[in-house]
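Structure (tokenized):
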């Protein structure tokens, strides 16, 4: 009698455990319990897997995205790089097709303008998204200069100058002049050092 009762109890426990495990394996159940609101976890995971932005899935409208960008940009200019970097990371997740977000992410990196291959990849992503954006080309030139890649810095600065023929940006032009001088100094110092 005890064997039958203990087997029945064990069967009930196994069934309960099975239900609990299936609930825990359901991504939406887990996501909702973590505060995911009404966001479809499967759609979220599919978007991440496909390299898509998340703004539509988490229902962020264009106006809110713009406000978040302005806030991140202001944080960067207050030299709060760590916080700005997290904000730009979130923006890149929301809309991975916006070159300005990728540029902000590179500029907010703790080791900017160096930052190694990570910064270069982020800037290259911005360049891919907006090849005609002079600010991206200028910042790539700056990164390459600091990384001692003078040839690439020169290429990007020349492309920046070509783009500036049709754009108006005195602040960018002033910065480009200083960068041109720095590139020339680097070139001359490498010639002298040879």
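Design, position by position:
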């Amino acid at each position: 009698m005890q064997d039958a009762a203990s087997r029945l109890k064990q069967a009930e426990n196994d069934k309960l455990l099975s239900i609990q495990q299936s609930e825990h394996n359901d991504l939406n159940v887990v996501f909702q319990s973590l505060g995911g609101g009404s966001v479809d976890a499967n759609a979220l995971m599919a978007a991440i897997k496909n390299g898509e932005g998340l703004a539509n899935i988490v229902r962020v409208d264009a106006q809110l995205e713009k406000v978040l960008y302005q806030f991140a940009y202001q944080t960067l200019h207050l030299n709060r790089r760590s916080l700005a970097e997290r904000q730009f990371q979130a923006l890149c997740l929301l809309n991975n097709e916006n070159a300005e977000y990728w540029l902000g992410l590179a500029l907010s990196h703790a080791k900017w303008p160096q930052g190694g291959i990570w910064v270069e990849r982020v800037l290259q992503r911005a360049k891919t998204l907006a090849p005609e954006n002079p600010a991206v080309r200028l910042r790539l030139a700056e990164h390459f200069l600091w990384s001692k890649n003078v040839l690439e810095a020169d290429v990007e600065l020349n492309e920046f100058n070509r783009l500036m023929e049709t754009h108006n940006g005195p602040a960018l032009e002033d910065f480009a002049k200083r960068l041109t001088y720095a590139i020339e100094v680097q070139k001359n110092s490498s010639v002298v050092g040879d």
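Reviewer-requested clarification: Residues 95-189 form a domain with the Serine Threonine Protein Phosphatase 5, Tetratricopeptide repeat fold (CATH 1.25.40.10). The chain has a mean pLDDT of 81.
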